[in-house]
Write a structure and sequence with these properties.
CATH architecture of one domain: Orthogonal Bundle
Oligomer: single chain
Number of helices: 21
Number of strands: 8
Order of helices and strands: HHHHHHHHEHEHEHEHHHHEHEHHHEHEH
CATH topology of one domain: 434 Repressor (Amino-terminal Domain)
Strand order of the largest sheet: 2-1-3-4
Helix content: 40-55%
Strand content: 5-15%
Shape: globular
Structural class: alpha/beta
Length: 464
């Protein structure tokens, strides 16, 4: 009779808790989903995950799974890992940049003596700002309850624009030397105007970005507007921006865009080596830190990602499409159900970096073409909906089974956009789930709703 007994799921859970760890900690270290860790704790075999569980409990794998390892002492040895709470250590710098965005900008300003400019919309031409040695920082919210914006902005404007304004009113962006916006939706324009009135800075600029980007005159119009903007920046900084400076600014941005696309290409794999919430750390932090620092860090971690073994991939591959969203805990909660978010289209995701500037001898025209021809925001994607073709291509290339259509509450452009987009996706056999989000989101109820969506997708896979 064999007296060797593996530890049960509950025994493993209690062992982790006794040492101050959880299944989520194990998943973060091992670079797999929490569901995958649960499977291993219940008996599935994955040496890398088992070794991390053993380390966190303070035992070796032979003590936890003696039935499996009793005849293989070599397998019972496990390497030491550096435990970093909150994510795999290879990507830790991006999460630190995201969480400590204000400290980074203040340190950059102190180190370089340069100016920091906050912007509200990704149609702002950062190439010109980098050409002037200015650090562009996208103003984002904190996903906290707040009560300071009611006197300044309508309550029925989207929670994102109110959350952004709250950060300024609370003094969290007190290091900014200037702010700017490119012509955007009415809600975020109100944030810019309120900020300009109530939180004075040395410089503010409203860039008249064409709304109808499909108009034949849009390239020429924006080129002239960029020339006016460049002159204003020169007067503010006292620096003459040369063609060489513009070329350098273009390359700074293009280099980062190329690297980000390489990261996203890895997500096409059957077992993506980077999760959706990890990818969001990369994209969101790229809008907050110096692109040179960000690109250098991507170049460092790309080989590590290519070699990373995430274990068996999820059978459910989803995409996220819709309004601005940098609520990383929301994405992490959805992925805790054992699904993989493999691609996205929103302005804190791939839409931000997808298109490059194509140099053609006229730097200002080249920059203008990039912003007119980029994957559009729905507020500019008319009369044709060109973006739908791009989204359908993403769904096909990244092999998704379902789409989460995210809409910020009261977001008019996406509210008009999502019904025909949903039809276009479902016509291609891609199931969709509508998810309205706020500045703070009830993760428990959302998790239950997403579980139901995943069950529906699993049922389709089973019977069809």
């Amino acid at each position: 009779m064999n007296d060797l007994k593996n530890m049960t799921f509950l025994e493993i859970k209690h062992g982790l808790e006794a040492n101050g760890h959880t299944f989520t900690d194990v998943a973060n270290i091992a670079g797999v989903s929490v569901t995958q860790v649960h499977r291993v704790a219940k008996g599935s075999v994955s040496d890398p995950v088992r070794r991390v569980i053993a380390q966190c409990i303070g035992k070796n794998v032979k003590e936890i799974w003696p039935e499996y390892y009793s005849h293989n002492d070599l397998s019972a040895q496990f390497p030491k890992h550096n435990y970093i709470k909150g994510g795999p250590r290879q990507l830790n710098k991006f999460s630190k940049w995201y969480d400590n965005r204000h400290e980074y900008a203040k340190e950059w300003k102190k180190r370089t003596g340069g100016k920091v400019l906050g912007y509200f919309c990704t149609y702002v031409p950062e190439e010109i700002l980098y050409a002037a040695d200015i650090l562009p920082v996208r103003i984002l919210g904190s996903h906290e309850q707040q009560s300071v914006t009611e006197p300044h902005i309508f309550g029925m404007y989207c929670p994102f624009c109110r959350d952004c304004l709250a950060q300024g009113l609370k003094g969290r962006y007190d290091y900014l030397d200037g702010i700017m916006i490119a012509q955007a939706c009415m809600h975020i324009r109100q944030t810019y105007n309120s900020w300009k009135i109530h939180i004075p800075v040395d410089f503010h600029y409203y860039l008249y970005m064409p709304v109808k980007v499909q108009d034949p005159s849009a390239h020429k119009y924006l080129t002239n507007e960029l020339k006016t903007f460049k002159k204003s920046i020169e007067e503010w900084t006292g620096k003459v921006i040369t063609n060489q400076d513009l070329e350098q600014g273009i390359e700074v941005m293009n280099r980062n865009r190329r690297l980000m696309k390489q990261v996203y290409e890895l997500r096409k794999k059957d077992s993506p080596p980077i999760t959706g919430h990890e990818a969001m750390y990369l994209t969101a932090s790229s809008q907050m830190v110096d692109k040179n620092d960000h690109s250098q860090e991507i170049e460092r971690i790309l080989p590590l990602l290519e070699e990373r073994d995430p274990g068996k991939g999820s059978d459910i591959r989803l995409m996220i499409v819709g309004s601005e969203n940098d609520d990383i805990k929301l994405i992490e909660t959805i992925e805790s159900l054992g699904i993989s978010i493999v691609i996205d289209d929103h302005c804190t995701g791939s839409r931000y970096f997808w298109n490059e500037v194509v140099p053609d001898g006229d730097e200002m025209m080249a920059i203008a073409k990039r912003y007119v021809d980029r994957v559009p925001c729905p507020s500019k994607d008319w009369e044709r909906r060109d973006r739908f073709v791009h989204i359908l291509n993403l769904a096909e290339e990244w092999n998704v089974q379902g789409a989460i259509l995210i809409q910020q509450k009261f977001c008019d452009p996406h509210e008009f956009d999502l019904p025909p987009l949903k039809k276009a996706l479902e016509d291609q056999g891609i199931k969709c789930y509508d998810l309205e989000i706020d500045a703070t989101n009830p993760l428990g109820p959302i998790k239950i709703r997403m579980e139901a969506f995943v069950e529906m997708l699993n049922a389709d896979a089973l019977f069809f």
